[in-house]
Structure prediction request, 447 residues.
Amino acid sequence: MPLRETEAIVLRTYRIGEADKVISLFSRQLGRIRAAATGAQRPKSRFGGLLEPLSYVRLCLFERENRELLRLNSAELLESFFAMQSRDYRVQLAAQYMVEAGERFLPEREVSERAFRLFLTVLRGMQARGEIHLPLLYFDYWMLRLGGFLPPLDRCLACGRSLTGLAARYSTESVGLSCAACQAAPVRQSLAAEIIGLLGRVATTRLDVLLAAEGLARMAQQARPVLEKWMEISAERKFVSLQMLAEE
Amino acid sequence: MSVFAGPLNRLIDELKRMPGIGQKSAQRIAFHIERSAREDAQRLSQAILEVKDKIRLCSICNNLTENDPCAYCLDPTRDPGLICVVETPYNVAGVERTREFHGRYHVLHGALSPLQGIGPEQLKLKNLIGRLKGGTVREIIVATNPNVEGEATAVYLSKLIKPLGVKVTRIAMGIPVGSELEFADEVTMLKAMEGRREI
Prediction:
């Protein structure tokens, strides 16, 4: 029964029996895994508030051969995102959207250092500013890109024409941008050139730099629905938390 | 072919559907029922049916009750100006065990949890706001669970209720009685420090 040590982000927990929990984790060294935490529901549990959603923790886990579920031995908190989620319902919705998307996009047991750093960067961005639009746009962009779902944003998918400095159109039923001249798909909505420019900046600029820039949050709010639609199309499902966030 | 006779098998299957009961426990309970007197089995089945037929939600506080309004809402010795808001009916029992709370209750039947599709619309909030409009309520004690969902629900409630001129308080969070500071995690310790009081 080898003991594994890993850093991880707690995605969510499920209650099992009277006192235990199963934790869904995105770990740095083992990828997305699940582990059983015995006694975690008890008030005097040694895990306390460490296993709350999106806690950044260092864990010791026992792994048994031919068993999918690992057993949590000990946990140490590295960074907590409890306060930001409990202060603002919109931030909680945004954080839970990340959990939903993560569980859909990250394959089990597949290590992805870049996705792990993305989670941390976005959570820290949200915690620092209490703002959700830019961090979520950044998250969507990089989740799509790391998953190989992001289409080229600089040219029309239908005719290949460059979209630099031009407004584009996007469909609510497929992933990708098209120029104003190509309108083959049934439902097309227009996207301003400045929004496409912002997506270009997201590709090349750190989130903390973007967050420090003036006026980008408003543009990010306009750009988010496009990438969120692409996330849903790529994931082949609707995200509950996203719908609730839209209703807020 | 099944190992047990048909009726026993059906009983085991039904018992297995209950939370925390697996195959072995279901078998043990099924054989216990088979061995027990007919009157005992009848009492059990009658009790199950009675729960389904007679238990409903109190129209004032949403607690589970046989008679509407429930005993807590009808009790004249309880302070109507103090309402403790909890997530589930069994949380009411938890508060009652202290024997120190003499106000009334309101059961939300959940907490804000986007991953489970529970938003404000799914919580029983409408009659809580209705109760506050009467002008008799002085204070709302939010006793939702001390986790992300419970905290977010508490903040949401406070934003909803404060404009009505009612005081909103949150139950304290921190170190459990009987434990030791040495073993407290950072989140719990932080909450304990935030919720400190003058002595």
Summary: Residues 89-247 of chain A form a domain with the de novo design (two linked rop proteins) fold (CATH 1.20.1440.120). The helical segments of chain A are 82-87, 89-105, 113-129, 133-146, 193-204, 207-212, 216-235, 240-247.
